[in-house]
Write a structure and sequence with these properties.
- The chain has helices spanning 8-13, 18-25, 81-88, 111-121, 137-142, 152-165, 181-193, 211-228, 259-272; strands at residues 37-50, 53-66, 70-74, 96-101, 104-105, 122-125, 199-203, 231-235, 247-252, 255-256.
- It has a 6-stranded mixed beta sheet, with helices on both faces. It has a 4-stranded antiparallel beta sheet with strand order 2-1-4-5.
- Strand 1 (37-50) and strand 2 (53-66) form a beta hairpin.
- It has a single domain, classed as 3-Layer(aba) Sandwich (Rossmann fold).
- By secondary structure, it is of the alpha/beta class.
């Protein structure tokens, strides 16, 4: 983790070896504000062939995301935000341009190397939780640790620590069907952080939640950034996210909006939700 830990739980969650940590940060360059850029996107385009048509999902997108920032990708359906998230997390590859995350140029990695890189550096959070129904909360959280050399006792201990961090210690042995939607998403977040990744990637994490639970999940993601120094990148349609994130990048038809166009897009999101204009970064402390 990059930030100062404020609890014993933060220390226990630390599972990566020193050599892995060195590998992840040797090549970090600096973002424009002087902070280390965990994510660098340079002239990235992504095109798909669909039947006889070529779909331009992203066109010449460039951006930096500093380590320890909470960032949102926003835009209408088909804007390219999910495609960009998949490129950042190493799930997809660009047609052109380069993607550098945690010191690795993802374009250069083989499929096996990319899978190993994801397991080491990325924690994934999904809209629909993706929990295994026949496994308890603790067993679901421990699943990513099966890819490590940790013994059963240590996997169990670290899963319990992750669940404690997200406030679910009393629900260790509960199955998904007995948990509320908000609790299931907390289990999914615990699963994402149990390997101590550099990057937490969240795809519409509040999309299947009511307003109260959505606010709680956004607050929890903010807490992971603030207390544990995590870099969190999220795709969302939720205008409430603008109160929690440090930065919001707006996309439309595969193009990254900048300047006044980006401000108008943000204002439109807030007005559609019945709110007022708000700038990303005005987040709760």
């Amino acid at each position: 983790m990059h930030g100062k830990r404020t609890t014993d739980d933060g220390q226990r969650i630390h599972t990566l070896s020193q050599s892995a940590r060195i590998y992840g940060h040797l090549s970090l360059l600096m973002a424009g504000d002087g902070q280390a850029a965990l994510i660098q996107i340079r002239g990235v385009s992504r095109r798909y062939v669909r039947e006889a048509d070529e779909v331009h999902a992203l066109e010449a997108v460039s951006l930096d995301i500093p380590a320890g920032h909470f960032t949102a990708f926003m835009g209408p359906s088909g804007s390219g935000k999910s495609t960009l998230l998949n490129l950042v997390s190493g799930i997809d590859r660009p047609t052109a341009g380069e993607v550098i995350v945690a010191g690795a140029r993802l374009n250069d990695l083989s499929e096996d190397e990319l899978a190993h890189w994801r397991a080491r550096h990325v924690g994934l959070i999904f809209q629909f939780f993706n929990l295994i129904p026949v496994l308890s909360a603790r067993e679901n959280v421990a699943l990513p640790l099966l890819l490590t050399d940790l013994d059963k006792h240590e996997r169990r201990r670290r899963a319990e620590t992750a669940l404690r961090v997200v406030g679910l210690e009393p629900r260790l042995d509960h199955f998904p069907r007995t948990l509320s939607g908000g609790e299931q998403q907390r289990v999914a977040i615990a699963r994402a952080i149990v390997t101590d990744p550099d990057l937490i990637v969240a795809d519409e994490p509040t999309g299947d939640l009511d307003a109260r639970n959505a606010e709680e999940i956004l607050s929890l993601l903010r807490q992971l950034k603030r207390e544990f120094g995590k870099t969190v990148v999220m795709v969302t349609h939720d205008p409430r996210a603008l109160r929690f994130v440090d930065d919001a990048f707006h996309l439309d038809k595969g193009i990254l909006l900048e300047g006044e166009a980006a401000q108008r897009a943000g204002d439109a999101i807030m007005l559609a939700a019945g709110g007022h204009s708000i700038t990303a970064g005005a987040a709760p402390p």
